[in-house]
Write a structure and sequence with these properties.
Blueprint lengths: L2 H18 L3 E3 L11 E3 L1 H20 L4 E3 L5 E3 H7 L1 H4 L1 E7 L5 E3 L21 E8 L2 E4 L9 E4 L4 H5 L2 H8 L5 E10 L14 E11 L5 H18 L7 E5 L11 E9 L2 E12 L1 H10 L5 E2 L6 E2 L2 E8 H12 E6 L2 E6 L10 E5 L5 H18 L2 E3 L5 H10 L4 E5 L1 H7 L1 E6 L5 E5 H12 L1
Parallel strand pairs: 3-10, 20-21, 20-22
Antiparallel strand pairs: 1-2, 4-9, 5-6, 5-7, 8-9, 10-11, 11-17, 12-13, 13-14, 14-17, 15-16, 18-19, 22-23, 23-24
Helix pairs in contact: 2-9, 3-8
The protein binds adenosine-5'-triphosphate.
The site of adenosine-5'-triphosphate (ATP) has 15 residues, from strand 11, strand 14, strand 17 and helix 9.
Length: 447
């Protein structure tokens, strides 16, 4: 198999595992789906929440200088006029002159044969390029008019900038400080593709970190650059798959003085995972001008007033989910049998521990297993009970969803030593642990 075929197969295997085991389903599936939308199932939600919680802890709770925000998705249309999204948030669209399918023109290579761009689907010539605005427009209230227009937000960032004054008035923070938000964003992408990599509805985790423009912005930029790389390690991405791409002058937004894209080697190719941008005073400046409300900062010591500058680390939740899945997906042989398993770091694993009674039809084993299960569930939350099928099959089922530890209650447990067998997902190694010491044992391993 060529590398490309292998990678295509890996994507297919990941998508199929996600569906089979309740991580991610096609959106509106029973109606034939809705392009660019995906639904997270029970294990997917738990996995995604673990990623979001790690992020929130690292960038909000564990810091003293970042304020959490959860702004409304629908915002006054003037927000998006001020930022330029209404006029300019567009991608180049080209239609195939033969089959009429539409593509993002900048993602299609020029053909070596004739120097033109061709349709990836039927090889017809692509027609002229038009700019296509990606905002989802809607109407708010009972009367549709120019004034009722609103947009589903295309990024979470502006929900923070418009709350800058509120944060200042309620908390009186000193610069530098940040605002952080996790939430949905919507873009009417011309060509959603590659599973949850490019969708029309997705989640972002963003920080707008405000700094004093009279001071050195590069120190803060460097700080977040390192923190972003750290985060990729915390969720379990392999460092050899993460790289940084400095965006050159020609490709950077006109207001940005520096932008780095963090890229990941996805199975379909190396593509953007996160972005880090120095946005200067663009956003606050635009909102001040457009709303007529002063959005300046008063330096209490020098009595100087100025617009803070912003450094923005921007993370895609769903792209993190996909990157973690593709690095965790492992096929190996254990005990002479082929298996598929997700080598998740414990922090992101949707199920931390699974508890099994050795046999289903022995009440004393069931009772003890239930007791162990309930106690562990109280402590670790995401614990699963499974008494279905032989132990080997139950191990495989847990391996496939990335559960780090499986615990089996057997006859020795109830008749002899009050100990259980703990089995490690990656090595398959089993060891006996006393029930009284189980919680301590798992706590150490699950950090
Ligand atoms: P791309 O060039 O891939 O379209 P972008 O540069 O437009 O992405 P940003 O506007 O910087 O993306 O958004 C910040 C982050 O949000 C991205 O790094 C990515 O993780 C995520 N993101 C953006 N668009 C999508 C999408 N359509 N589907 C899923 N995640 C997305």
């Amino acid at each position: 198999m060529s590398k490309k075929e292998k990678n295509n197969k890996l994507m297919e295997d990941i998508i199929s595992l996600c569906k089979r085991r309740g991580f991610i389903y096609q959106g509106s599936e029973i109606y034939g789906g809705l392009a660019g939308t995906w639904d997270y199932g029970p294990l997917g939600v738990a996995f995604k929440n673990n990623i979001k919680n790690l992020w929130w802890k690292k960038f909000v709770t564990d810091r003293e200088d970042v304020y959490g925000v959860d702004a409304a998705i629908l915002m006054n249309q003037n927000v998006w006029k001020a930022t330029g999204h209404v006029g300019n948030f567009s991608d180049p669209l080209a239609e195939c002159t033969k089959c009429k399918k539409r593509f993002r023109e900048d993602q299609i290579e020029i053909s070596n044969k004739d120097g033109f761009k061709h349709c990836p689907s039927c090889d017809g010539l692509l027609g002229p390029t038009k700019q296509f605005n990606m905002l989802f427009k809607t109407s708010v209230g009972a009367i549709e008019s120019e004034e009722s227009i609103s947009y589903l937000r295309p990024e979470t960032a502006q929900g923070m900038f418009v709350n800058y004054k509120n944060i200042i008035d309620s908390f009186h923070p000193k610069l530098p400080f940040g605002m952080a938000q996790i939430g949905k964003a919507f873009r009417n992408e011309i060509a959603p593709k590659d599973f949850i990599f490019r969708t029309r509805e997705f989640e972002q985790m963003e920080i707008e970190y405000l700094i004093d423009p009279r001071k050195d912005w590069q120190v803060t930029f460097e700080h977040f650059r390192k923190e972003m790389i750290d985060f990729t390690k915390e969720v379990g991405l392999k460092s050899e798959h993460v790289s940084e791409h400095e965006i050159g002058d020609a490709d950077r937004a006109f207001y940005s003085k520096r932008t780095i894209d963090f890229e990941f080697e996805f199975p379909f190719g190396t593509s953007e995972l996160y972005g880090l941008a120095y946005r200067t005073d663009y956003d606050l400046g635009r909102h001040e001008k457009s709303s007529g409300i002063e959005l300046k900062y008063l330096d209490e010591e020098t009595k100087e007033k100025f617009t803070p500058h912003c450094i923005e680390p921007s993370f895609g939740v769903d792209r993190t989910v996909l990157a973690v899945l593709s690095d965790a997906y492992t096929e190996d042989e254990l005990g002479g049998e082929k298996r598929i398993y997700l080598k998740f770091v414990p922090a992101v694993a949707p199920v931390k521990v699974a508890v099994f009674p050795l046999l289903k039809n022995k009440p004393q084993l069931i009772e003890k297993a239930q007791e162990v299960y309930k106690n562990l569930k109280k402590e670790f939350g995401n614990v699963m009970f499974d008494d279905n099928g032989n132990i080997g099959k139950r191990y495989r089922r847990q391996d496939e969803i990335g559960t780090p530890f499986c615990i089996t209650i057997d006859f020795d447990t109830v008749e002899k030593d009050n100990s259980v067998t703990v089995r490690d997902r990656d090595t398959g190694k089993q060891e006996r642990v006393e029930i009284a010491k189980l919680s301590e044992f798992l706590k150490k391993k699950l950090v």
